[in-house]
Design a protein that fits this description.
Layout (H helix, E strand, L loop, with lengths): L1 H10 L18 H14 L4 H9 L2 E9 L8 E9 L4 E6 L5 H9 L6 E3 L2 E3 L1 H25 L4 E7 L1 H16 L5 E6 L7 H11 L5 E7 L20 E4 L9 E3 L17
Parallel strand pairs: 3-6, 6-7, 7-8, 8-9
Antiparallel strand pairs: 1-2, 2-3, 4-5, 9-10
């Protein structure tokens, strides 16, 4: 599978002995992506326990897998909560799409952002998937750990569909809970909401006051859906790897999507 080839390439530069400092440097870090966020995402596709213990010295609190919504009941959404006392991190992680049928389901329900979240509207399928997991136990797991360790950093991440749910998650938490700092990074994330939602997200997590990055690999189709024709836009900030991701060679695009220069490198028109 393309995902696991990408995983091998991205993890090829990992050396766990190197320290990572992010509190004083909110800019994107290839090192941080490879050593923390990407291993968390990869672990969501299996039993996370061994992966997160090996790569992050972290403990699994619970993994949940449920039908994403009431229409396509055979398609599941999955996510887990983990904690690393060594890194002083609580993590919420969401798994990506697992079948072509699930991609079709996402497309059917994404003709227009129709679920309100804060000041904007988001894709209903992504929202329902997150809320199913949140209400089934992720909420209780997260709030219990956050209450016990209020000074731990919060990591929220996901790949593909999981990236979309993680973007729903960071905004939902920011709106409904007093959580001062969230580190948000996604890989191959589709567009999630409309311009009003994107404006809200960027105001909360963009610039020097927040930490939110979308990592995009060359020729990945998922970041191009749902199309802008259906009133969807991407939030900031895009990190573009126009290579095989075996090196830390990337471009940063912090402009609005209407001004993106990086997406134009792909010969796809939406």
């Amino acid at each position: 599978m393309h995902f696991f080839h990408l995983l091998a390439a991205f993890l090829s530069l990992v050396h766990l002995g190197t320290a990572i400092a992010i509190r004083s440097a909110p800019s994107y870090s290839d090192d941080l992506a490879r050593k923390r966020f990407w291993p968390l995402c990869a672990a969501a596709y299996t039993n996370p326990t061994k992966c997160i213990d090996k790569w992050l010295n972290a403990q699994l609190i619970r993994q949940l897998t449920l039908p994403c919504d009431e229409i396509f009941k055979n398609d599941t959404c999955s996510g887990y909560t983990a904690i690393s006392p060594t890194l002083r991190v609580i993590a919420l992680v969401f798994r990506g799409t697992t079948t072509d049928g699930q991609l079709f389901a996402e497309g059917v329900e994404s003709l227009k952002p129709n679920q309100q979240l804060g000041k904007g509207y988001v894709d209903e399928y992504f929202y329902n998937g997150f809320m199913k997991l949140w209400n089934a136990g992720m909420k209780d797991d997260f709030l219990a750990q956050h209450s016990r360790y209020p000074n731990y950093d919060i990591y929220i991440t996901g790949h593909s569909l999981g990236g979309a749910m993680s973007t729903i998650a960071v905004n939902y938490l920011s709106i409904n809970y007093d959580i001062p700092t969230i580190y948000h990074m996604t890989f191959g994330e589709p567009r999630v909401g409309d311009s009003a939602f994107v404006e809200m997200h960027d105001a909360r997590f963009g610039g020097t006051t927040g930490y939110s990055y979308r990592v995009v690999h060359q020729n990945d189709i998922v970041p191009h859906i749902p199309p802008q024709l259906f009133s969807y836009e991407h939030h900031k900030t895009e990190i573009w790897y126009d290579n095989d991701m075996k090196t830390a060679d990337y471009k940063t695009c912090s402009m609005d999507e209407s001004s993106f220069v990086l997406q134009k490198d792909i010969l796809l028109v939406w």
